[in-house]
Design goal:
The protein has about 200 residues and is α/β, with parallel strands linked by helices. Helices cover about 40% and strands about 20% of the residues. It has 8 helices and 7 strands; from the N terminus they run αβαβαβαααβββαβα. The protein has a 7-stranded mixed β-sheet, with helices on both faces. The longest helix has 22 residues.
Length: about 200
């Protein structure tokens, strides 16, 4: 219909939807889905190098060591704190995945940096954020929405944690958990984006 054409999307029925209104509510659901998963696909814009980011990597590493397929996409320009280094790497068209992902990769996970060769380090970030988990005998579970991987998101809520930074409190962002045909559409998009990022990284 007109809405599908305007949004370049497809309306789907038979989905189930649950709101996860802040990090305090959403994060235990994310962690539970990872613990129970038989396959894990994560895409984020910001993958922060902080307590939450380290704990997330540890959880994924444990699953990968257990033989669970794990795939991670993250935006380089958003996740790297040293923006001048990102600019330099873009000009040289060379990017080395950070050391903090080494154990995850050694466990067999596939880590895919997005925008690794783009020197426009202040623009054109890949802002998609979702966690897809497959559970044997159950529908695919999709968590999507606004939350990145980091302390400011995990601890945003009621009440939020206070931080000693220019952002004084955690972000009160919103996720959702969805099962049904739309989760399959997002899974297809994940694969398409991963193929595109890999092609750019190898170019």
């Amino acid at each position: 219909g007109e809405l599908d054409a305007t949004t370049r999307s497809v309306s789907r029925s038979h989905n189930t939807f649950k709101s996860l209104p802040n990090g305090i509510v959403a994060w235990p659901v994310r962690e539970k889905n990872i613990r129970e998963a038989d396959a894990i696909l994560v895409k984020t814009c910001y993958f922060d190098n902080d307590e939450t980011g380290a704990a997330f990597i540890d959880a994924l590493t444990k699953k990968a060591k257990d033989g669970v397929p794990v795939f991670v996409q993250y935006d380089v320009k958003a996740s790297e704190a040293d923006k001048l280094a990102v600019f330099d790497r873009g000009l040289r068209r060379r990017y080395d995945i950070p050391q903090r992902f080494e154990a995850l990769r050694a466990a067999g996970a596939i880590v895919i940096p997005v925008n690794a060769g783009d020197w426009h380090f202040t623009t054109r970030k890949d802002h998609e954020k979702y966690q897809i988990t497959q559970h044997r005998g159950e529908p695919v579970r999709l968590i999507g929405g606004g939350m990145n991987i980091g302390d400011w998101y995990r601890h945003g809520g009621d009440p939020p944690r206070k931080f000693e930074t220019f952002v004084r409190y955690g972000y009160r962002d919103t996720d959702y958990e969805l099962t049904g045909p739309t989760a399959g559409d997002v899974l297809d998009e994940f694969v398409t984006d991963a193929e595109r990022a890999l092609a750019q990284n190898l170019a």
